[in-house]
## 1
Amino acid sequence: MNETNEIAPTSGRPDRFVAGVRRAASRVLGTSPVGERVLELCDRFEAQRAAILQTRAPDAIIVGVVGPTGQGKTWLVRQFIEDASLRQALPSGDRTREATVRIAWVGPYPPADINDRYERYLHCEAEKMFPLGVEYLILDTPGATDQDPHVVEISKQTLSLASVQILVVRRDQLRSQVVHDLVNASEGTLVLPVINIVRQHDDKLSSDIDAYCAAIHAAAPSSEILPPVIVHDFDVVDDEATIARTTREAIGHALRPRLVEAGGAERRQRARLAAADRRFRQSLHEMISDELPYLVRAVDHLHEAADRLPVDVANSLVGSGGSLRAGIRSRLRLALLTDTAAIWFPYKTLIGLLNLTHGAWDRLVLSLSGSLPSLISSAWTTATNVGQMQSMEAEMRGGVRERSAALVRDRLGPLIRSFQQELGPLNAQAPQAMGNESHHAHLRGIDQLQHSSQQILEEEIDRGAIGGATAQLLGLAGTLIFWVLFAGPVVGLYSKYFRASSAVATDLQDHLDQFPAPEWAMLLTSVLLSVMPTAVYAMLVITMTQSNRRVQKCASKIQERHSQEIIRLQREGVLRLELDDPILADAEFLVRAGKQRDTA
């Protein structure tokens, strides 16, 4: 189908893609409620992309520590800092109101554009930060709680800044819905779950962790989820220093190789942009599917018909079933005639004659015996075969485009009318710009399909033919059959002729009565007696050349390669249905734009 408006958001121009969605929504949906919701979705997507593209710390990886309030996020942040005085400057979220609503940046240099109202920066030399193999900034986010939606919103906004997220949750909060919301907003990042305040290991803990990780994967399928780190409750163990050291080592073991392999923040940023694009498409698809199910159904039917059309066109190119096998037999006979050398006379002449009179061999045998009606019948069959071959070539050269246009009109006309009927209630002005549906669509890539079909047919016929060397051996055998049978009269006549010529040359006298004067009936009988076995042999050769097994093998291979070629041309966008009407094209693009697809 036509996707001329569509630009791959992660590899091309996302602004053009969103502009296409906006334009399609305005033309097709007008000022309807669903149209305004599509425009709002575009606004949110562009704002999210702008946030991801912010380069507030271009030379460092941003590691965000996120989670609900009271999960131990700030305690975990302190484990990355070896400066004791700086650790004291990071109070826990339940100590001060300020700590719960302000973002804390910790690292060797400050990020750009610090907002003093919501952010603060704590300087820490790189040598006094826990080594992760790359330069990084720690981002201590506010706690996300169900009771304070403003704080939840601040936390979600900060997620767009982090390439790596350490998701901290208490053992008893593993099933918190807030955690799942945070992960859903952080899709495309590197996520390390940290299960905090674990008092004992048991089967229930393992099952809860498995369910928790499965929920994270479901909420953020494009994120890379690392194995969780378990932090024991040091109030029970009474050894905070040991637990802190073990936690640092586990986090370093999990993050260090992944950060080194990632190649910096740019690669993570691309993953975040791809994830944002997938979320936008999914949201758009869900919105259109829920609000406009009949329009989606009409587009799907249109696409299903468009996907089947190339198969029908390909079948019209080479035929299907009996017509395909008949065409293969004709091509195999022609290949045999072409591969047989001209020196194999009259065997090659008989092969050519049998090709032209294929389907009338019985009448040909009678015609050679002198039956006038059979001769006329064979001549008519010959002329018909020649005419059919010329018609087939003309059809291959010029009739494909007309057949494809007729198929588009016949198959898609009713579907396009249904499409138009669904557009009417959405935007009253849209159907007014449409004319006759026969001019709304055409099939692109027919010329390429025709070229490929011809090439496939020729290649498979060449593979299925008996081959040049075999054709020469068969020609030699057929020629020997004729000349061995015709050798008696020829040798007798020429022997008598040479003796008479020798006598005239020797005596220099008139010996014309000694020259042979054979009757034409004798010569014709000799020719017929020699030609008939040769013709029977040629018939056997042609029968072998176009055997059912050979023909069926060629037909199966041709159909298989045609199917593969159609899939390839459709996948590459060469063979597709294009909607010429701009309103229909916009409506189709709007519905199809929400479909998930690989943008790599």
## 2
Amino acid sequence: MLLILLEGLLNKLGIIVVFVFLLSKSNFFKRYVLKEKLSLYDKIFFSFVFGGLGILFTYWGIPVHGGIANSRSIVVVAAGMLGGTAVGTGAGLIAGIHRMFVRGGPLTSFACGISTIIGGLIGGRFKKYIEEKQDKWLYGILIGIIVETIQMVIILLISRPFDEAFYLVRLIFMPMTFINAMGIGIFVILIEQIYDEQEKAGALKAQLALNIANCTLPYLRKGLNEFSAQETAEIIYKMTGSAAVAITNTEKILAHVGLGDDHHKKGDNIRTNITKRVIEEGRFMVAQERDEIDCINKNCSLKSVIVVPLKEQEKTIGTLKLYKNRENSITSSDIELAKGLGHLFSTQLELSQIDYQKELLSQSEIKALQAQIQPHFLFNALNTIVSFCRTDPNQARELLLKLSYYLRSSFKNQEDFIPLEKEIQLVEAYLSIEQARFSERLKVEYDIEPNMNIAIPPLILQPIVENAVKHGLLPKSEGGTVKISAYSENKEAIIKIKDDGVGMSKDQVQCLLDTRCKKEGVGVSNVNNRLQSIYGHKLEIDSDLGHGTTVIIRIPLKGCKKVESDISG
């Protein structure tokens, strides 16, 4: 009997797995799984869906000695693990109450009904716990075992006569526990595949956002105007396949490309209330239905939209809008793409406010150092920030502020000398971004003597620190530590940048200081030349191949310009 029961349940499990696999491939189900927050309607609807499946699996069970061997607990527990306590309990109540009154298996009707409700509740309560784990399917199997064990205990406590209940439990415990626990585990695996697909889609969207940012950079660097907005909107429209793309300032439509351009016209006042709300509140918004867009043209063919703010110094100066021509078609990856573009464009617009030309004409040496801020660093930094937008928005915001400060500080310095504190702050901003990218591979230590209120030439430390990170530490698989020290000694200010990276040979050190050698760029050699021309001291570089490098800058304190200690940022 046991083998016959096990064989029957295995056959049914195979059919259930096929059903769940097909369900997991449907866009409707994927949208439900990937929703960050379920509405009340969603919770009620899916409680009935999973509860109905629980009823179906009850009828599909195998009658056994006054009970029914079935897989009802798979869908009820899965409902809780997907939708939380409300959905799990709702599905459990629907399937459980039905089980109490269904014909067949009268010995366990009430006990199995109660255990079904408890199973949905347990699945919901374990939802957040499982989300934090790596091997989620193992925890799914464990929950299945717990739920089935509870069901058997309830049968023994409630069902009478006890002898028959005990005989039934001995007969069905092992096969039902094995089959249903495995079913829940398989269900979790299939759901995880949906999340994995979403992650891959998100990575592609992030790459797409960077490609778009690269293409739009020449236009947005000129500021937000009708020309730059039109060129940017056309690029996004071609690269994303959106039904329409629009860019506005706080009052007017600067560009609209795609469907709806017959009434969403460049130069017109903003026509949709959702756009006005984004400008007022400074946060992104999604409209999944045409009525939510609230376009004043009732025949508008645009059915859904994601609107993100464009900002400068935390002030909203406009919006970016990606439209679809179908309702409920804005996916989470579309939202991530739009948010990523909004962040990138906001950064580009901030950069547009910097007066590059005046700086490049007035300081030729700093021009050479600024050229060392390679595009790959900017886009790597932005890529890092995009990845944090979904997982840690607060960290993403902090990194954007660091990047903004770093770029502003790198380009705006017009003075011959700046406070040492400001130069340290620039280095800290750069290293914060690099630490976010490389995590444990990059460690940073500071040892700055208090009250070193001196002024130094701008962009003296950053090229050296960047060289230590890029060419000293990162070539090592385990990374390493860069330490920045500043102290006074023998009437000199000593600034030391030390790393425990791969080190350099004597020829490499010589090449690093030679402006004619282009292997490692010209940043460090320019620093060396500027120090020599101002103070008569060269950089001191002590490097041991395979063990690290120490670079020392000596600033004479005699005649050194002093600055106030309360330096403003």
## 3
Amino acid sequence: MNYIKSNWKIVLLPFYALFIFLAFTFMRSYTVTDADRLFLTPTFEDSNGWDIYKMENGTKKEASVQELFDSSGETFYLSRVLDKGMERAGYTVLELDGTTWQESVFLDGELLYTVNPGLDNRIGFVEFPKEYEGLPGMGEYVRLTLPPDYAGKTLTIAAAFNTTVDYRGLPMVRLSSENILTQMLVSDANRIAMPAAAYMAAALLLLGLFFYNWYHGQKSYSILLLTAAALIQSLRVLLNFEFYFSSHFSLNFIPVGLLIPLSLELPILYLLLQMKRWKKWYAPFILAPLVLSLAAHLMPDSSFASSCDTLLYLPLLALCVFAVLEWKDKNAVFRLFTPALFAVIVVGITAASYLMLTGHGDSVFVSMLRFPTVMLYEAFQFYGGILLLLGGGVSFIQAVHKAADTQSELSVISAKNELIQENIQSIQESSTEIAGMRHDMLRHLHTMLDLSHAGNAERLQRYLEELTKETETIPPLRVCQHPVVNALVTRALAKAKRERIQMNLHVEVPADISIPDADLCTLLMNMLDNAIEALSLLPGKKERVLELTMHVRGRYLFVETMNPCDGTALTDKETGLFRSMKGAGHGYGMKTMSDIAKKYQSKLQIKQEDDTVTVRTALLMPDVTCPIQ
């Protein structure tokens, strides 16, 4: 039976995934804010509350938004009354785009701001010089604080388009506040810093896992691929910051184009190395697109690099097929990875469908699912992050599983050492008794010879019976060929002797059975200890006899203990197993034996008839070519 079915701890994985989701949700809450600017920019469909006009010979002449857009050098006026809702909402800062428009601002006719103090800054007389061109492309935003109690006053903006830049648009007008700007600044910084820090932390954890495995004698070089993928994802996020701002940072020397395919392909290469049967079939789907993509980015003319990058979807789609094939072949890595991958796919499709149905179809996440080619690089970073998370999770689970196996092996070794010590003590006791009997052997022989010559057959028979009983009390040194079974039964014989319990053995177990020593030791030790403990509690008048039967028939190892009992044992209604009489903290032996029986396609049978308890099971011994995990 495979690991997932035999180890109940697999149910912890959904809790781990839930914890990751909650942590992601918590951290993401600091990358968004409800604070937003109030956009008052007029549009072609709606003047957005503005009264737009220009002055001709001292007379107002109404103008349309289209005329404002098509103007060149003429001064237009945008006028509106500021309502109380704006002031109550905390909007205190007026923001204008001074990149392509020259502007002067008035509040109830009083000048608040002008791009040129030398002008005749009166409403109706403002004429902006044509030689002004601003600072194209540098985001020359104008911010001015509105005076208190501005509600109900008339805001007038004189604007003229006199620049030579190619881009043309309507004059941007929006309201904000220091609080809004601070919240937006913090959320923007967190949107860059938190993912970068998370990926860097993942890289350090994976690197630590590599050194941990190396320290314990396992050089898991494939984990270095995940480490590099996490580092690249972190660099990609940081380099995005450099794209937004014309600043110099330490990462300017990194060829950004190479990070795009590597962020996706490195986790896929890690999964390729974990494959067994289908590795050589999956390799061409990865290597060919990766080589083409890297070559395209390294060439001087990288105009067709994006077309080559589109080929990287091929290994991503092929992974879904080969992951299922490896899962069917009972690959331990893909027994974990494949269900998690398809769970993520289902959750992603469900979330995208929900967002589209609720009118949030323009989100980046939905766009990546709906238009993976258009949003190519964002999609690669997202898909690469998902594969990194799943691959890293599988690596850590395997490390925990290996550590648990190591601890189990150490426990078995400790139990074996304990058995060896007890066997040494039994051997010493047997040797001492044999030495004594050897010393008395000559006397016994002379006595029997005298009784025989005297013709006293009755006394000779009694003497032989007494001598036989004394010999039977000496623990045997060899019960069967299997070393662990031999040690456990010898230990039980010594323990039974101390409790004045007679053990009848029917044990035939070869040395080469395929059941691991750990499971065999746990099952047999619990069965014998439980039986001896039950017999030790019997009243003095009852016979204390323990019957142990073990033999191999075909691929089954049969194990059975029979012993008298005192009274009726308590039974658990759910499991059908006997309950311990010792109270809380006890009774785990029965469940452990039952779990081992299930692991080997069997059932632990327990029944009580006529004051006799029988515990038996028949373990299906695994094929040595396909051991139980």
## 4
Amino acid sequence: MLRASYSMDRNNLNTVNKEVFSSTGAHENRCLKEKGRSVMNVSTELFRIQRLYHCEQINGNTAFKKLEQVVSEIVTFESLLFGKFDSGKVDSYMYICSNTKDVSDFVYWNKAKNAASRILVEHTNELNRGELSEGNETRLSDNDVIIKNYVLVPTVLDNESLGFLLLVNTEGGHIGDWQESLGRIADAFALISLAELRLGKTGGDLDRKNKSELLDMLIMHSSDIIGVYDLSLMPKYLSPSVESILGFSVPQLMQPSFFEKLRKDSQDIQEVNIDGVKRYRYITKNKDGKELWLETIMDSLYDEKGEVQGYFGVTRNISEEVMGDQKMTEALEKEIALNKMKSQFISITSHEFKTPLSTIKSSIEICNIELQRQLEEHPSEQKFRKHFNRVNNEVDRMNTLLVNLLNLEKINQGVIQVTPKGKRINSYLHAVLEDWVDQGAVLFETALPEDFTHPIDVSLMNQVITNLVENALKYGSRDDKVLVQAKSIKDKLIISVKDYGDGIPRDEQKHLFKPFFRASNSSKYDKGSGLGLMITKKFIELQNGAVHFESKEGEGTCFYLTFPLI
């Protein structure tokens, strides 16, 4: 067992106290957001809190508050209740706190405790089995809902009674992800509660014998392996929990030759420094030959002269955590490889298609020219013209699809280069819309001064305007021209493209910018890829602009491109 001749490094403890817990008691663990490291960091904090408490750096109430802060890092809750459950009912509450209710709010806590009693009775079997429970809505009467949802975490207080940690009205992610951490926190509440009970809740000093008994009792309840090692790292004390983890008995492991062989057989030893605490991870085998991942935190033990006399270590089984990380890594690597293959396929396929499409396109154009020359001599060849036009249109459609696929892949890879240059917007839009305006298909109106200039990426904007106008012509009214307008309002440049077609069904409008989406009333028109609007939106956003639309069934649709004026 641990003896009084060993003492924790007071300097280290003071440093930990200053760095980890501020003067206001604020908890500063910032690593819990990274899943896969969460259990590790919770264990570190619990180790520090209990070490500070057992070395009398903090009292029981402060320790409870720090444990409360650890819980708040994991899940948001309204209130926390920790107590003792015995003979099918709540025996006592040892700690309560709330983010919204004062401890002196008798009405609230009376209702909360009554509701908690009901919850505990309902989950007696789960408590006895040591299982975490979740639930919702506990009523004291038809109009009195005191608990909307809760998480109940069991722990062991002594041989005859159970402890419980109850979190009321929780918010946040799936609690199952934090089950192991919450279990360790509940155990920490239990250990400090037991110590406080031994102290008679007076906080007074104990004699050396009682301190030793108290420490033994705490170690007996720990699920981790607690050990004391000499300067050569041979064990002088190991907690009984080593038998449940490794399968070897304590007397076996205390034999230098046996322990040395076990240590030499350990593999993949890694040193990890987290929050200033050194951890050692390694693979070892249990009594049945099964490989386990273990993690050990070591701390120096000093004598009264301040000289290192040995080491204090806490070891836990992290096999499930490591295996979970490995599976996630393998899945991520497979996904990356699959995405790479997909990108290569799209890129290669698109480029391979473009060459034959270009050949087909040029051949069709040549054939059309020849047909035009001979049309008067061979009127029946008008049929050939019809079929050539069909082929020509399909080639255009396939070429547009390939361009959109390439653009989509560039967007996904984040490799699109944006090179904005100042352009006179009226002149630019006249040039882009010229052919459609001459054909009488588009009407262009502008309220901008002729010298109005704004930076745009011409290549991206050409695709945006072309896509919106072609869509408007395709889905718009055959009797009304597509209306393109340009104007500036306050600090914004607005370019709009309006058609007078069927419009977009209201319940489908939220999907309009999703890839491969086409409205249900578009089936009577020429087929499209469903990529154009998504690419349009992204191209405008890359130029610091925004896209929105207004649409009514039977009246048409108007798309607005909005750019902030610098």
